[in-house]
């Protein structure tokens, strides 16, 4: 999301054309004579921009009468729409969701069909079941107002702890038994974290290939190299985009974890640093707008304590992983600014770091003034 635009554009796709295409495609996936009908296709508002999500319902004939299926389509973005990431491995996302569902310890949507042929919708996609629940929104951020903001401190603690419990359950999945090697980055590096870091370097190089470099991000890469953990610990399945805006909640407990395009193999602390940083990112926006936000929610030390209770593992080097999360998000925000320029919703600035909303916080992480003495 972009902190400076209330409604950033996500796609140039035509909804009516997409509706007709899906209806025809479902006629080939469902049993003969199903005669599927898709009355409407819509895009959810208030959440992320990294890939396209379509919400629709199909009504079709089935034994015993008519059946209605609420579904979600996950699409690789059109290359013409200036996508956030250089590539989208929908096959890995589909395989990972199926793997997690089969394990049964982490709530995720059930996956139904995968379509690799870009001719159907103009891009590959897969379809999964729609799960009922409510999501903490990005636009406007949940720290401004809404159901999370209005909840009691005890309810927010339940949400925090239950979310961390789900992350701990994900990390407990046996990598070898689950055959999750497809999540490894095929890049140079002696450890999963080194390969993860190399992937971020290449992501940044791709973003800045237009000639706009970002000094604060380059300083962060150097700082991280200089403060590398002595022991990275055990590698696990990392959700990657582990923030509450990617969770459907039933009450204050996760009904489904969503958005797996950033999943990888890496240390446990990747997800903990990202969870805490992403809340701090939104909290700083609230403070900058003169609002109180939620300063006592999803603090790094509380996330770490909750994780230790859930997993029996003590998180380590969280300053490093929090800063790494800030770097990763900075690269994403730099790319999202380019998307907004592409769609005519923003302009280039003489300050290359100005498009990174949290650049001051990241700089303070690097110089050491961000952390309590």
Q: How would you sum up this structure in a few lines?
A:
With 373 residues, this protein is of the alpha+beta class. Helices cover 40% and strands 14% of the residues. It has a five-stranded antiparallel sheet. Strands 6-9 form a two-stranded antiparallel ribbon. Strands 7-8 form a two-stranded antiparallel sheet.
Spell out the blueprint of helices and strands.
Elements: H1 15-29, E1 41-42, E2 52-62, E3 65-75, H2 90-103, E4 111-115, E5 125-129, H3 147-150, H4 153-171, H5 175-178, H6 192-207, H7 215-226, E6 235-238, E7 247-250, E8 253-257, E9 264-267, H8 269-288, H9 300-311, H10 318-342, H11 359-367
Antiparallel strand pairs: 1-2, 2-3, 3-5, 4-5, 6-9, 7-8
Could you walk me through the main structural features you see in this protein, from its secondary elements to its overall organization?
This protein folds into two domains: 15-129, Phosphorylase Kinase, domain 1, CATH 3.30.200; 147-367, Alpha-Beta Complex (Aminoglycoside 3'-phosphotransferase, Chain: A, domain 2). The longest helix is centred in the C-terminal third of the chain and has 25 residues, at 318-342. The strands form three sheets. The chain has a five-stranded antiparallel sheet with strand order 1-2-3-5-4. It is built from eleven helices and nine strands. Residues 1-10 have low confidence and may be disordered. The protein is an alpha+beta fold and 373 residues long. The radius of gyration is 21 Å and the shape is globular. The two termini are 32 Å apart. Strand 2 and strand 3 (65-75) form a beta hairpin. Helix content is 40%, strand content 14%.
């Amino acid at each position: 999301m972009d902190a400076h635009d209330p409604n950033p554009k996500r796609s140039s796709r035509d909804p009516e054309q997409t509706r007709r295409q899906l209806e025809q495609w479902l006629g080939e996936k469902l049993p003969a004579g199903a005669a599927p009908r898709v009355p409407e296709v819509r895009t959810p508002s208030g959440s992320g921009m990294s890939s396209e999500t379509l919400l629709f319902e199909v009504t079709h004939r089935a034994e015993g009468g008519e059946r209605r299926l609420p579904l979600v389509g996950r699409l690789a973005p059109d290359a013409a729409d200036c996508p956030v990431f250089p590539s989208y491995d929908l096959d890995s996302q589909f395989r990972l969701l199926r793997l997690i569902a089969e394990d049964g310890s982490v709530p995720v949507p059930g996956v139904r069909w995968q379509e690799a042929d870009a001719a159907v919708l103009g891009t590959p996609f897969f379809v999964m079941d729609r799960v009922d629940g409510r999501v903490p929104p990005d636009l406007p951020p949940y720290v401004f107002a809404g159901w999370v903001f209005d909840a009691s401190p005890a309810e927010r603690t339940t949400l925090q702890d239950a979310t961390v419990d789900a992350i701990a359950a994900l990390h407990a999945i046996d990598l070898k038994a689950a055959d999750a090697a497809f999540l490894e980055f095929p890049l140079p590096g002696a450890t999963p974290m080194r390969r993860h870091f190399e992937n971020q370097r290449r992501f940044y190089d791709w973003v800045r290939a237009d000639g706009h470099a970002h000094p604060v991000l380059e300083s962060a890469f150097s700082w991280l190299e200089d403060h590398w953990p002595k022991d990275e610990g055990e590698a696990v399945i990392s959700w990657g985009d582990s923030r509450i805006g990617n969770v459907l909640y039933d009450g204050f407990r996760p009904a489904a974890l969503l958005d797996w395009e950033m999943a990888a193999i890496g240390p446990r602390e990747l997800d903990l640093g990202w969870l805490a940083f992403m809340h701090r990112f939104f909290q700083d926006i609230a403070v900058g707008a003169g609002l109180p936000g939620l300063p006592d929610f999803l603090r790094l030390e509380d996330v770490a304590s909750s994780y230790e209770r859930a997993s029996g593992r003590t998180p380590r080097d969280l300053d490093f992983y929090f800063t790494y999360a800030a770097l990763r998000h900075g690269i994403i925000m730099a790319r999202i600014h380019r998307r907004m320029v592409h769609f005519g919703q923003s302009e280039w600035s003489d300050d290359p770091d100005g498009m990174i909303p949290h650049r001051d916080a990241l700089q303070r992480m690097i110089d050491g003034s961000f952390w309590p003495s």
